[in-house]
Amino acid sequence: MILAFSLRTTFVFLYFTLLHNLGPEIGKFMAKGICTENLDWTHVELSRARFWAMGPELILALLGGFLSHHWGRRTILLIGMSSYALLNVFAAAVPDIWTTTWFPTAYLVLSPGLIALGSVAFLSMAMRISWTQAVGTVFTTYMALSNVSAVLGKRMVGTLHEEFGYHASFYAAALMAVLPLILLVLVNPSEVDAANEDSELLGPETDDALTDESSRLEQRVQEDLEESE
Which of 74, 110, 117, 127 is the most exposed place for a label (fewest CB within 10 A)? Predict the structure, then answer.
């Protein structure tokens, strides 16, 4: 377990996991706040937009899984989270657009799909680099930290709203969505593959060495017994 996170790739991905949900959580709560407090949306209207979002979210999640296999997990992560960041920059740069009849709904419908696009690639990358000899534990660690990231994002919402207000906080959501992507430069699945191969090669040698040492100890004990007799 400790050896699994001693690699640069798996260790850096811990930090990526801890940061990657901050932006999505901030943007989601700011958008809901604008709709309910500034636009006086009812819970029915908010639920309707969330229902409409299920279609694009499902399609983009499936598309993300397919494209991750063909274009690469890192590429799809960049596309998904960068697109989400651009949506938030637009939402912050043109605050009056929230008063239109179409943009609030468009944001609530599109943003979950873009997040899902990146999330599928994230899960795929987490599985790809999980240490094969402790894959369950390592992958579970990533999932736990992902949940922690979501909680931290929720906790930041109140502070950001008090300091910057709803609209300017979308800049923070965009920044938090993009910054973790820089860490992906240090994530190299080939490093994990090489470490796994080395571990498999060292495994039999280590077992043989232990067996030889045990045989030598048994032989010495036997010789000592014979001498004592």
Answer: 127
Alpha-carbon span 145 to 54, nearest angstrom:
25
What values do phi and psi take at 120, rounded to 5? -65, -45
Q: How far apart are CA 153 and CA 143, in angstroms?
A: 15
Q: Which two tokens stand for residue 95?
A: 């605050």
Q: Name residues whose C-beta falls within 8 Å of residue 115's C-beta, 6 or more positions apart in sequence.
A: 24, 80, 84
In terms of residues, how long is the chain?
A: 229
- Mean pLDDT of residues grouped by 10 in the chain (229 residues)? 78 95 96 94 93 96 94 95 97 95 95 96 92 77 93 94 94 96 93 77 48 48 52
**Contact, 55 vs 112, CB < 8 A?**
no
Q: pLDDT value at position 210?
A: 37
CB neighbours of residue 222 within 10 Å: 10
What's phi and psi for 140, nearest 5 deg? -65, -35
Residue appearing with tokens 């279609």: 55
Return the structure tokens found at 229: 């007799």
- Angle of helix 73-93 versus helix 103-129 axis, rounded to 10: 150
CA dihedral 165, 103, 20, 167 (to 10 degrees): -10
